[in-house]
TrEMBL record, chain A:
Predominant localisation class: membrane
GO cellular component assignments: plasma membrane
Protein name: Transporter permease
Residue ranges of the TM segments: 6-26, 57-78, 90-108, 115-135, 147-168, 189-210, 237-264, 276-299, 305-324
Places the protein is found: Cell membrane
Naturally occurring in which organism (per UniProt): Commensalibacter papalotli
Native organism taxonomy: Bacteria, Pseudomonadati, Pseudomonadota, Alphaproteobacteria, Acetobacterales
InterPro entries with a match to the protein in the record: ABC_BtuC-like (IPR037294), ABC_transptr_permease_BtuC (IPR000522)
Automatic annotation (TrEMBL), chain B:
ATP-binding keyword on record: yes
UniProt cross-references to NCBIfam families, sorted A to Z: PRK13548.1
Protein name per its UniProtKB record: Hemin importer ATP-binding subunit
Listed InterPro entries: AAA+_ATPase, ABC_transporter-like_ATP-bd, ABC_transporter-like_CS, P-loop_NTPase
Record GO terms (molecular function): ATP binding; ATP hydrolysis activity
Organism, as annotated: Commensalibacter papalotli (ex Servin-Garciduenas et al. 2014)
Pfam families xref list: ABC_tran
Highest taxon listed in the record's lineage: Bacteria
Primary role: Part of the ABC transporter complex HmuTUV involved in hemin import. Responsible for energy coupling to the transport system.
Length: 332, 260
């Protein structure tokens, strides 16, 4: 592997550590580092650390990793630089399932109520991913039909969530709309643990699929001739990426475009070898979401902007540029 | 040297209720260069996909070294047979060298640099390796794909196994057609390699093949040595084209000429 890329990765890692330290220092209340380790329930600073700032930073980093890795995997899987969980409607599918889980009354044991949104989101994202993948094979991976399918699913998902909010009671509606805006304000530790338990192993497992993702770029037939069990690999990757999207959506709502912007930017810098592209995407996804979330926290103080708005603001123009680039490439 | 075979026995293939192949039997022996010819839609590419294990046959069976193809582990099979398709489109930009190196992925042990350099040299890919694959011409891409397929089969002592090429010369200029076929010929003679290709250019088939199989509507209608198959009677019958065959004086190979 190119030594230069290794240096770039280290730079990204240092930037991320810097951003974590920076984000920890930024906020309405200035917190001293010493109070972080002062485990005294009376210390208000320590409580802010533990209950607000630390979980938030952790969540931004881990959701950033999940969304960018899922984008990288989907692009590799669909062999298409425009594949993104948001654009293809996979996040919508997860969102719809979470909305159903929130609104439809179900009597469940307590520990399950905590897991319910995550499980629902996983099932929702998996179903949409499989649907889209089948349709993609049917349309021979045609780019525009793929995006049109995404638009249709997004519209359906939006309408369905709309209907659910209409039938929901006041408390459910509040829950639904807070979650729907896409924010990282969710700071309950049990939920954060669930997120970590699901995302970290999945991301590590995906790293072991790097070479298989490289082989898939040759096309199904050539990958098969090189000894890859193509359909098994595709299925496993679909499940892994749906798990990432589902977990991210259930915790933080729909944060758009990260899965599109990050992998494509990293492709420009690191090339398209997944062995290096995956860790690069993970680091820079964490970095970008953390910076965006910190900006969202401080830009309109004392209120707070939904971070999903910021990432979309950034991702929209990039998406536009990508489409133009694809058109030029096809013409050339 | 033991010469192993890949043997397709009474292969039938049905796809979407269409009979694509009907009772085809074919033997590919190491040390031979075998060519499939036939009119458009004869089932050449489908036969390829059955022989390489991509399509399971509806009836009949392929045996590689005596063992049914579907019983081979995918990785082990990939060390025995490599395939070069007509065209491979790669969506993301990768260097030609990256593509060639992917050919080594069935092998656990690290790539032998000497083998890599040697294969790149004999396939005349040296000036291409650092270029972006997507920006190479069709012919250049074919040379890269040949290097990728060869490196997949290369062992310490040389390439071994079955190499399938679907119209490998379709985008090549005269010089590179000759170079590629001469290379394949010499590899087949020197090592325990069997080459099986689909060719549309019957004169290339005539000059370089050991065996020719003529396919029509999913059946083998003629097979044997070059002089057995490349005859006016057979070609006119199955291609329906108006043609003459002349004997090349120096090389004693039949030469197909279309009548103007």
């Amino acid at each position: 592997m190119d030594k230069r890329y290794f240096v770039y990765l280290m730079v990204l890692l240092l930037l991320l550590i810097g951003a974590i330290i920076g984000a920890a220092n930024i906020g309405p209340v200035h917190l001293s580092w010493s109070s972080l380790f002062n485990f005294d329930p009376e210390d208000i600073d320590h409580r802010i650390w533990m209950n607000i700032r630390l979980p938030r930073i952790l969540l931004a980093v881990i959701i950033g990793v999940a969304l960018s890795i899922s984008g990288t995997v989907m692009q590799g899987l669909f062999r298409n630089p425009l594949a993104d969980p948001g654009l293809l409607g996979i996040s919508s599918g997860a969102g719809f399932a979470v909305a159903v889980a929130l609104v439809i009354p179900m009597a469940l044991p307590h520990f399950l109520t905590l897991w319910l949104p995550v499980i629902a989101a996983f099932v929702g994202s998996l179903l949409v991913t499989i649907l889209i993948f089948q349709l993609s094979n049917l349309t021979k991976g045609n780019l525009s039909s793929l995006l049109l399918i995404g638009i249709a699913i997004n519209a359906l998902g939006g309408a369905a969530v709309g209907i659910l909010s209409w039938v929901s009671n006041d408390q459910q509606l509040r829950q639904l709309s807070l979650w729907g805006m896409g924010s990282l304000g969710q700071t309950e530790w049990p939920l954060i643990f669930i997120t970590l338990i699901l995302i970290i192993p999945t991301v590590i497992i995906i790293q072991f699929y790097a070479q298989r993702l490289n082989l898939l770029q040759l096309g199904e037939e050539d990958a098969h001739y090189l000894g890859l069990n193509v359909h098994k690999t595709q299925k496993q990757l679909l499940i892994l990426s749906a798990l990432l999207v589902g977990t991210a959506v259930s915790v933080s709502g729909i944060i758009g475009f990260l899965g599109l912007v990050i992998p494509n930017a990293m492709r420009l810098i690191f090339g398209n070898n997944h062995k290096i592209l995956l860790p690069a995407s993970a680091l820079s996804g964490a970095l970008l979401l953390l910076v965006a979330d910190t900006l969202a926290r401080i830009m309109v103080q004392p209120a707070e902007m939904p971070v999903g708005l910021l990432t979309s603001l950034l991702g929209g123009p990039w998406f536009f540029w990508l489409i133009l680039k694809e058109q030029w490439r096809r013409r050339a | 040297m033991i010469k192993h075979t890949l043997h397709g026995k009474n292969i039938h293939l049905v796809k979407n209720n269409h009979k694509i192949l009907f009772d085809v039997s074919i033997t590919l022996t190491q040390g031979e260069l075998i060519t499939l010819i036939g009119p458009n839609g004869a089932g050449k590419s489908s036969l390829f996909k059955v022989l390489t294990g991509y399509y399971p046959s509806t009836q009949g069976e392929c045996f590689l070294k005596g063992k049914p193809l579907h019983l081979w582990r995918k990785k082990d099979l990939a060390k025995e047979r490599a395939v070069m398709k007509q065209q491979s489109i790669i969506p993301f930009s990768l260097s030609a060298l990256d593509i060639i190196k992917l050919g080594r992925s069935p092998w656990e042990e690290p790539m032998n640099k000497n083998i890599l350099d040697h294969v790149i040299e004999i396939t005349q890919c040296v000036p291409l390796v650092h270029k972006d694959y997507a920006f190479l011409s069709g012919g250049e891409q074919q040379r890269i794909q040949l290097a990728r397929a060869l490196i997949q089969l290369w062992r310490e002592e040389g390439p071994s196994g079955w190499l399938f090429l679907d119209e490998p010369t379709s985008a090549l200029d005269l010089y590179h057609q000759q170079q590629m076929l001469r290379l394949l010929r010499s590899l087949v003679k020197k090592y325990s390699l069997s080459v099986c290709m689909v060719l549309h250019d019957l004169n290339l088939a005539s000059l370089w093949s050991d065996q020719i199989y003529l396919l029509n509507k999913g059946s083998i209608v003629a097979s044997g040595s070059v002089t057995d198959v490349i005859t006016e009677e057979i070609l006119i019958k199955w291609y329906g084209a108006d043609l003459k065959i002349i004997k090349h004086q120096e090389y004693e190979k039949p030469y197909v000429m279309l009548c103007p």
